[in-house]
UniProtKB/TrEMBL annotation:
InterPro entries named in the record: Isoprenoid_synthase_dom_sf (IPR008949), SQ_synth_HpnD-like (IPR017828), Squ/phyt_synthse (IPR002060), Squalene/phytoene_synthase_CS (IPR019845), Trans_IPPS_bact-type (IPR044843), Trans_IPPS_HH (IPR033904)
Gene3D superfamilies cross-referenced by the UniProt entry: Farnesyl Diphosphate Synthase
Protein name as it appears in the record: Presqualene diphosphate synthase HpnD
Enzyme category, top tier: transferase
Species this chain originates from: Mycetohabitans rhizoxinica
Keywords: Plasmid, Transferase
Gene (name only): hpnD
One of the record's GO molecular function terms: transferase activity
EC number(s) on file: 2.5.1.103
Length: 269
């Protein structure tokens, strides 16, 4: 499967495909890497084999940065050099996937949740903003805020689906404050979670606002892809807030038509 094929089924494909060719290729390669390590973490293979596969990726990334990229990573190696992508950010993504393999995450503390969001989302953002050509400090801040906004939205959207596979990403302190004392996936799935989700909703809202402020400082052509992603996810976030988090929770998603409307708006204006 090519990098473009890997990306074609994602909600980010429309945002990526409108970029200039070099940036588009860079984002496809980053996405392909993330997709492959994520597939390892979520596969039905044994814990030992998944850890071994992630370790193989660490070895492959180290070899790439040492100038000995495997043939199948030749394009990624060129993208790394072209956009000065940092090895630590690739490793952070792998570390984030490993968190889901080493121990099933159930009601983590706030620090653990924030570390998870940094690794699986903001680290991807740190790679992406270098492709977009943002200034280093602004880029890292955008990656911090937008990455967390997107990941918190994912967590709020996927409460029941995550519980189905034994995971609970809602933090234990917010669950406890809402009176939920049995912190098991089944108990959380059956609970009305408006109070438990309220702090995450507030955090996501603030991260979206901070990301919007940063992007407003740049010409539209520089931040067109993160703007589209932010708009699509903010629309999803707004639908989740309107629906609420009382059980039973109806699945919420942003239609492809709405995403394409966001793309068209950026092209036209």
């Amino acid at each position: 499967m090519t990098s473009q094929q890997a990306a074609s089924g994602s909600s980010f494909y429309a945002a990526m495909r409108i970029l200039p060719r070099a940036q588009r290729e860079g984002m496809y390669e980053i996405y392909s890497f993330c997709r492959q390590v994520d597939d390892i973490a979520d596969s039905g293979a044994s814990r030992e084999s998944r850890l071994a596969a992630l370790e193989q990726w660490r070895t492959a990334i180290a070899a790439l940065y040492a100038g000995n990229a495997r043939p199948q990573l030749a394009t990624l190696a060129r993208v790394v050099q072209q956009f000065s992508l940092r090895q630590d950010d690739f490793i952070a993504v792998i570390d984030g996937m490993e968190m889901d393999v080493l121990d099933t995450i159930v009601a983590p503390d706030r620090d653990t949740l924030d570390l998870y969001c940094d690794r699986v989302a903001s680290a991807v953002g740190r790679l992406s903003v270098r492709v977009f050509g943002m200034l280093d400090d602004d880029g890292r801040q955008l990656a911090h805020h937008l990455g967390r906004a997107l990941q918190l939205t994912n967590i709020l959207r996927d409460i029941d689906e995550d519980a189905d596979i034994g995971r609970v990403y809602l933090p234990r302190d917010t669950l406890a404050a809402a009176g939920i004392v049995h912190l098991t996936p089944d108990a959380v799935r059956a609970a009305s979670l408006d109070r438990a989700c309220a702090p995450l909703v507030a955090d996501a809202r603030e991260h979206f606002a901070q990301a919007t402020t940063i992007m407003a400082r740049y010409p539209r052509r520089v931040v067109i892809a993160p703007r589209i992603m932010a708009q699509a996810y903010h629309a999803l976030f707004a639908q989740l807030v309107r629906r609420g988090f009382a059980a039973p929770r109806e699945r919420v998603r942003v239609s492809r038509a709405r995403l394409m409307l966001a793309v068209a708006r950026h092209w036209l204006f």
